[in-house]
Write a structure and sequence with these properties.
The chain is mainly α. Among the domains are: 76 residues, no CATH class; 124 residues, no CATH class. Helices cover 72% and strands 0% of the residues. It is built from 24 helices and no strands. The termini are far apart.
Length: 365
């Protein structure tokens, strides 16, 4: 520490008004002195260096500051005030190394910087080891696509429940982000299901393509289970030939409509109802029959919402289906609420999934 004490007279002159070049040279000398013994210095010694260096960096050119940042960023017991001052610099060449590597930056400092600085600053923070929930909450909220992908790809980053939920919501529209989220081990199963079901077709395909074989099977199972396609009850053998002839004749003539569908269902003509719904939704009779033969009304809600039909049509189809005839009034009320909440885009995605599975089944046959 004697070496530092010998510089004090020079420091007093510098702080009263020396050139930027002179200040930069002294900054380098004191930095060298600090780095040479950083591992041995006590907290009091580090505090002394911190006071000196924090004063010296005022009015120093950016190049010198960037050099200083790169040299002190990874020091385990780096000067905290100096590190904070460098991290708050608007120039990312100065702030970046410290934001990514300085362990002594407090969460409060990182949160404040994440809330106020540029995307470059956010990306630098996103690459830190052990980014806390408080910090990632801000990054997920403020970050652009590149930033959020980077923090999602950081295995040491920790996310709150709200942060993960926001991350999953963003991933439903971003294939690159979805792949990174799917590889994380801290995403709860119910959020992973949400990601799969709410993702766009392109994102779903990317997840399937990039997944390991065992994960790919799990993804397909989740999609099938949540969409209601798999039914434990086998439908009885039915003869759809007459109904299909009638419906296809109307369909070819451009006369098949929602009204016909409601009339078939209202008259209890299940086979005609299935044939009409299959023609209007572009799905095979077998799949429609399996979907409507289950205990739950969800498939009928999805089919009707995807086709642009209203609740009266959905209700008529539910009550005409084998399982729907046993539904209590309260269950129908719940089904109506679910139908009103179900978005057209979500129903369309599930419908396209059913159609794709139909194509896969035909190819396998």
């Amino acid at each position: 520490m004697a070496a530092l004490a010998s510089l004090i007279p020079e420091l007093e002159d510098l702080l009263q008004g020396a050139s930027s070049a002179k200040r930069a040279e002294t900054l380098r000398r004191i930095t060298e002195l600090f780095l040479a013994g950083a591992e041995r210095y006590s907290s009091e010694h580090v505090a002394l260096f911190d006071d000196v260096l924090s004063e010296l960096v005022i009015e120093i050119e950016m190049r010198a500051l960037a050099e200083l940042s790169g040299r002190v960023a990874a020091v385990e017991n780096g000067p905290p005030k100096l590190l904070r001052r460098l991290a708050e610099n608007d120039d990312i060449s100065v702030a970046g190394p410290v934001l990514t590597h300085a362990r002594r930056l407090a969460d409060a400092d990182l949160v404040a910087i994440a809330k106020s600085k540029s995307q470059d600053h956010l990306r630098a923070i996103s690459g830190r080891r052990g980014v806390s929930e408080a910090v990632t909450d801000v990054i997920v909220q403020r970050g652009d696509a590149r930033t959020v992908r980077k923090v999602a790809d950081n295995r040491d980053a920790r996310f709150s429940h709200a942060g993960l939920a926001a991350l999953v919501r963003r991933a439903t529209r971003d294939g690159d982000l979805a792949e990174k989220v799917a590889r994380r081990t801290d995403v709860p199963p119910h959020m992973f299901r949400q990601l799969l079901m709410q993702a766009t077709d392109i994102v779903q395909k990317r997840l399937l393509a990039s997944a390991k074989p065992e994960t790919r099977f799990e993804i397909r199972q989740i999609l099938a289970r949540v969409s209601g396609e798999i039914s434990e009850l086998a439908a009885p053998e039915r003869d759809f030939s007459a109904a299909q002839r009638t419906v296809l004749s109307l369909h070819r003539d451009g006369k098949l409509s929602e009204t016909d569908l409601v009339n078939f269902a209202g008259a209890g003509q299940y086979e005609h109802t299935v044939a009409a719904l299959a023609a209007l939704c572009g799905i095979s009779l077998d799949i429609i029959d399996r979907l409507l033969s289950g205990e739950r009304p969800d498939p009928a809600l999805i089919l009707c919402k995807a086709a642009g039909f209203g609740w009266p049509t959905a209700r008529a189809i539910i009550t005409a289906s084998p399982g729907g005839r046993r539904l209590a009034p309260r269950t129908l009320d719940t089904a109506k609420t679910n139908f009103e909440r179900l978005s057209y885009s979500t129903a369309q995605r599930v419908l396209r999934f059913w159609q794709a599975r139909q194509g896969e089944t035909e190819d396998e046959g």
